[in-house]
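Open question from group meeting: does this chain pack into something compact, or does most of it stay loose? Before anyone orders reagents, we agreed to write out a predicted structure and look at it together. Recording both the input and the output here so the notebook holds the full record.
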Amino acid sequence: MCQGEYPILIGLGGNLDHPRLGSPRHALEAALTQLDRLGVRVVRLSPWYRSAPVPPSDQPWYVNAVAEVETDLTADRLLACLHEVEEMLGRVRSTANAARIIDLDLLDFRGRAASGGAGQATLPHPRMTGRAFVLRPLADLEPRWRHPVTGEAIQALLARLPPEQGIERM
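Structure tokens returned:
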């Protein structure tokens, strides 16, 4: 990745079985298929990971990955599309950090910064820098990625993560 050449990156996660599709990984793979039907093409996908819930809890571990996508959609429209796919696959929003069938996050949209608001994307994702389940697969996909606002290298962000954020490659 050359400086100034930022991709569009989405985070994928889930820790509950889908009633029709089965495991979280199968649900996330179905989400990628649905995104393609909506004009969001996956260019590359990180390896899949199992990760401990954040914050720590007795929930099942999550399945996570990061995908680089291409689309003609704006960041706000892409975010709406991600939410549409979540809803299509049965995501029920309850309390923050609750277990879920699927979670799709817009992490980085071509290196842009945006403060968000109702129905608008906050870019880059505001909590991504403190989450192993985002940074580890992102580092596999884009090892030279730098935070678009702070300029911090992904390896420096990974080094600051707390050790209780367990993560393992599947």
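Observations to bring back to the group:
Helices lie at 24-37, 75-88, 132-141, 154-159.
The mean pLDDT is 93.
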